[in-house]
Amino acid sequence: MTExxxxxxxxxxxxxxxxxxxxxxxxxxxxxxxxxxxxxANIGSVVVCTNDPAxxxxxxxxxxxxxxxxxxxxxxxxxxxxxxxWALERYAELHGTKPTWLMLLQCTSPxxxxxxxxxxxxxxxxxxxxxxxxVVPSAHCCWRLKDKIPSGEWPQASPLxxxxxxxxxxxxTENGAIYAFKVERFLVEETRxxxxxxxxxxxxxxxxxxxxPEDLALVEHVMRTRLxxxxxxxxx
Length: 236
Hints:
Layout: E1 4-10, E2 24-25, E3 28-29, H1 30-41, E4 45-50, H2 53-61, E5 65-68, H3 80-95, E6 101-105, H4 114-124, E7 131-138, E8 143-146, E9 149-152, E10 156-158, E11 161-162, H5 165-168, E12 171-182, H6 183-189, E13 197-201, H7 213-229
Parallel strand pairs: 1-4, 1-6, 4-5, 7-13
Antiparallel strand pairs: 2-3, 6-12, 7-12, 8-9, 10-11
């Protein structure tokens, strides 16, 4: 049985940034960075699931396995879990088995390094956890609208009374870059978050995700700095 598969789902279209997955970021299409990071990590096979011919062409150039995702699974109302369940069935059809672990790598979080991917896998393969996912340190004070009325969320001691930083303790936010989980448990729970879980902490500069033109410009600035400092085997 294959121990690990790295899965990169890439749907065509975007409400916030048209064609974002193939837009240029530091001289490469956005999706290509995650493909290169996964290949440089060298921890398992790399599969790209997409309904975008342009993405398929990029994946083909790097000898990735490609699954033609049905258009009905590429709608933005479809959960990532639904896409991954379909991809696992497709993998089983082609290989006669399912992997022990699946690692989801999202191309809209391109500031990860291949070393981050390897380190996540090092934690996962100990077998001590069912899910490992990447986070960044956070001190956000969150609000949401309930019936058009602002309502304070975490961290708070009671409604509209915010905790001090010391009371709240350390907080983390998902950066959307890396998720690894045991396939056997995922098929039962149908979620990436399966206790016991491990939060793999990444540097704060990896928090940015590409969803708008402004995001792309900011990520490009950080990426160029990161490439100058070293990007763990991945180059522009």
